[in-house]
Specification:
Length: 229
């Protein structure tokens, strides 16, 4: 999993980071609420470890912004030294998925993260994705663009589904390759060839290519209204 740690205690953050990396996960860290919000918005994470008491923007406010204002549904495990029922209810009310009291066991942190991720994947897996005139049904793997069926190989379906999960966001080569092949490829040729197949099929069905190449960064889905004439 790719995990975002938002924790201002450097010792706790370092312990979490080192442990999660040693378990095969990748992690990024922020030491205050504002930096954490920026990372959560600009990158794709499988789960967020969020401290309640943060400088700049507290965990409750950050959680509320992610859920209510930005509509980001990444699972959130809230970490706090506060153990009152009122604190827990406030966290859940503003969008936290789980709650862990400090001090905690690192193995329990990982177990809860994995459980949240599994629940989230199950929920997302049953949700039809739609963007502009493009739709993808994960149950049947059927794709329609401008009311026409689109036939794609499995890797291209994975690439499209990832981009449709957050339209308008730029996905890096590494993110796309990990989604389709579960590993970073030696060269960019493999991804480039599959993107070519995907774009050609969408253009044939819809009359235009909704995928934008952001040079030096990656690819993203773009609505027809944003495509220059």
């Amino acid at each position: 999993m790719h995990i975002l740690i938002i924790e201002d205690d450097s010792a706790i953050a370092a312990n979490l980071y080192d442990f999660l990396e040693s378990r095969g996960h990748t992690a990024d860290a922020a030491v205050n609420g504002i930096a954490g919000l920026h990372l959560a918005v600009t990158q794709r994470f499988d789960a967020i470890l969020l401290d309640l008491g943060l400088p700049g923007m507290n965990g409750i406010t950050l959680c509320r912004k992610l859920r209510q204002e930005l509509q980001i549904d990444t699972p959130i495990l809230m970490l706090t030294a506060r153990d009152t029922l009122e604190d827990k209810l406030a966290g859940f009310e503003h969008g936290a998925d789980d709650y862990l009291i400090k001090p905690f066991a690192l193995k329990e942190v990982e177990a809860r993260l994995l459980a949240m991720h599994k629940r989230h994947i199950g929920k997302v897996a049953n949700r039809t994705l739609e963007f502009d005139k493009l739709s993808f049904d994960p149950k049947t793997l059927s794709i329609r663009f401008e009311n026409k069926n689109v036939k794609l190989p499995p890797k291209c379906i994975r690439l499209l589904a990832l981009m449709m999960s957050e339209p308008g966001r730029v996905f890096s080569r590494e993110e796309l390759e990990l989604e389709a092949w579960e590993d970073v490829q030696e060269t960019s040729d493999t991804l480039r060839s599959h993107m070519h197949i995907l774009r050609r099929a969408l253009t044939k069905a819809g009359g235009y290519d909704p995928i934008e190449t952001v040079h030096g960064l990656g690819y993203c889905l773009t609505s027809r209204a944003q495509i220059p004439d």
